[in-house]
Amino acid sequence: MKAKKNGQAWRKLTASAGTAALIMGLLAGCSGNGGSNDGGNADPEASANGGASPAGQQTEAPKQEPYKMSIMLTSYNPEFMDPEGEIYKRLEERTNTDLTLTWVPSTTYSDKLSATVASGELPSAILVLDQKLPYIVNSVRSGMFWEIGPYLKDYPNLGRMSDIALNAISIDGKVYGLYRERDLARDGLMLRKDWLDNLGLKEPATIDEYYEVLKAFVQNDPDQNGKADTTGLAEQQVAAGWRAMLAWHGGPADWELKDGKASPAHLSPAYMDTMKFYKKLYDEKLINLDFAVVKDGKQLINGATAGSWIANLNDAQGIEESVKKVVPTGAITMVNALEGPADLRSPGGSGSYGLFMIPKTSVKTEEELKAVLNFFDKVSDEDMQNMLINGLEGRQFTLENGQYVKTTDSKMLVEYGMGDSTQLAVLRDKITTYGGPLVHMRNEMWQKNAEIAVSNPFQPFISDTYSERGSELNKIIEDARIKFIMGLIDEAGWNDAVAKWRKDGGDKIIEEYTQAYKAVNP
Amino acid sequence: MNEDLAITRPSAIAGSHRKQMWRRLARNRWLYLMLLPGIVYFILFKYVPMYGVLLAFKNYQPFLGFLKSEWVGMEHFSRFFGDPLFWMLLKNTFILATYNILFFFPLPIIVALLLNELRKEVYKRFIQTLIYIPHFMSWVVIVSIAYLFFTTEGGLVNEGIAAMGGEKIQFLLDPGWFRTFITAEVIWKETGWGTIIFLAALAGVDTQLYEAARMDGANRFRQLWHITLPAIRSTIIILLILRLGNFLDTGFEQIWLMLNSLNREVGEVFDTYVYSTGISQGQYSYSTAVGLFKSIVGLILVFAANQLAKRFGEEGIL
């Protein structure tokens, strides 16, 4: 009996499974048929036609056939560059390429980059924002990317690339990419000019003066609304102003050479001083007290509740525009660096932000490599640099009495991706700067900063331990720093965290950096 | 059915079994043919991609490709188990997962039972729809809502506490509150959605049983205890077993968004670790090894729970 029952159940099961399979099969069949009848037949023809006609024209023309290339890079704006637009067309024409740009929103770029590299299916050039990430270093060492250092001198524009910046992006002493030029030290202090004026204060020049300004911003009602509703400094979870504040207190930019050995910033006495300064700000409520959970601290100054913001001075223009929406009389001013116990200093970067790397998986021959390099050489021509950064006069902007006026026509804005086209630029040495007073002020500040920049002497070196465990180790230090500022741990607690950092791999990183440094500078 | 075969020799049994099987296959050939696409689907899309777990035993280099990457054996596993973070991750993950089972899992059952007791069908459906709407919100939205309510700077709850003369509480920073928040957010988001399966199971209960119970003088609580609960017991157990399979999946998005420097010691779990090492840092093989470890723990838990369920006389899923 039981066997029979089982048999029935079995049959029922197979029947229902069979039905399910049948339905799935039918569905699959339908879509399959649809695909092969409509798309399957139509597609090849279309592509054959579409492909043949331009190719035919090309062969008739005496010009060399455009090189088909693709680039993956970051986008900061909701709309990507219009491939039918004038700028795109000029770009393709000048560089003699058939260009495909893959824009990836900046917020997800690092994930997308890692996944793309893992898949091995790469575009002709790919923007890498941090070449010291372990998977990039490993890929370079396994031979995935072209070493382009030796080719640069053959190109009129690329030949101008600075040796210092190239050294900073090098891996194992060789250059594997074209850096995107940036000013050396771009961080500074941005303040509400109208608040300073209301309180009868000047821009601070020293850390102590800045502290007084913050105090006044919180206690003396700078927005004159009769309420104590203002914050001094806006900060956020991933610190925006820390590096600058540390340098102003006399600290290094990430790493320094001390007694012939590599030494990280958090071992310097200045680090402790800076933490104590922030702790004072926290205790006296001069900083937003929930900074440790705030994702975007800039919103506080954008929304006119905070009086200052320490970050890339590039932010100033945007902040002023946002503030004016809330307080029409609002204005922003800036200070390039504050004087502390040491000389005036500013935290230096590498002189670039990100580099374009050229994978051997997609660019197979030297010939092709030269075509890709040619692209970047041509976009570094003076007019191309200006086109990518400012747009075209008469389309993206007009000059009225020498004043730069950006267009409001959305079609024109999309032509240069609302400004995303700048992401393509490598060299920026022939740019005409347009813009309001804040933009000029920013450039001036950057120039001043470049003279007082402290840089990280270990930038070009690679520590395997850092590659593997660096992000976990950084968290130990950053978490302890925030806890110290908030008064949850004292100096002994901080020292425990540093000891843990050393034990979990920090000491090895110091050793590896020191060795790498000594190998080059005996 | 086959009693006569019991006395024949083993080989004959095997032989005739085989023959029978073929006969059955032949008889139901169309059914099997229809089953085929389903089987092929599973093999092609579920089993074949499993070779990817081999990455955990290699040092995957995209340029060298899958086959040419070097074999490293258990190196990634020993690095993971030897990592100072391992015990912290394990502890955090287990505690959060246990909280989830203890405090979240029973709630949809209770809510479903309560809803089942409602008389007005329209009212019941209205409530049901209302409570499962949060399921469709993304974690970003929910964490933002939590932030708006509980931050110390102008957060609704803290302003309320301050207005009543109390001291503001660092809900979002204090590690002591972290697990409460994670579990509470899950409860808020998923309870309503979780009731759906239980309500479906409840709808299948034979109404005659209730009538008979009423005739015997059982009150509503007795009916619930003796009829409703036993009726959905197997559903509860199956869902529990399935939940255990994902025991270590604490949900990446929510925790990632709630993490900050002060609660990391209780908040960092396997999922967030895999993200930061695997995706952000591109340590592909290492993160595959961590992921594989998680899956194996899940598989063990499913088998264990299934055995346990069988021992208590339930059917289980395997």
Description:
The complex is a heterodimer of chains A (522) and B (318). With 522 residues, chain A is of the alpha/beta class. Chain A has 3 domains: 67-183 and 351-429, D-Maltodextrin-Binding Protein, domain 2, CATH 3.40.190; 186-251 and 266-347 and 438-458, D-Maltodextrin-Binding Protein, domain 2 (3-Layer(aba) Sandwich), CATH 3.40.190; 461-522. Chain A has helices at 2-60, 86-95, 109-119, 134-141, 163-169, 193-199, 207-219, 242-248, 269-283, 298-302, 315-326, 366-378, 382-390, 410-415, 437-451, 464-485, 491-520, and strands at residues 67-75, 97-105, 125-128, 177-181, 187-192, 231-233, 255-258, 261-264, 306-312, 332-335, 346-347, 352-357, 397-400, 403-406, 453-454. In chain A, the strands form 5 sheets. Chain A has a 5-stranded mixed β-sheet with strand order 2-1-3-12-4, sandwiched between helices. In chain A, strands 6-9-5-10 form a 4-stranded mixed β-sheet. In chain A, strands 7-8 form a two-stranded antiparallel sheet. In chain A, β1, α2 and β2 form a beta-alpha-beta unit. In chain A, α8 packs across α9 (269-283). Chain B has helices spanning 10-27, 29-47, 65-68, 75-82, 86-104, 106-116, 121-132, 139-150, 156-163, 175-203, 207-215, 220-245, 252-258, 264-267, 270-280, 284-311; strands at 58-59, 70-71. Chain B folds into 2 domains: 3-61, no CATH class; 74-311, MetI-like (MetI-like fold, Orthogonal Bundle), CATH 1.10.3720.10. By secondary structure, chain B is mostly helical. Chain B starts with 9 loop residues before the first helix and ends in a 7-residue tail after the last helix. Helices cover 71% and strands 1% of the residues of chain B. In chain B, strands 1-2 form a two-stranded antiparallel sheet. In chain B, α7 (121-132) runs antiparallel to α10. Chain B is built from 16 helices and 2 strands. Chains A and B meet through α1, α3, α4 and α16 of A and α2 and α15 of B.
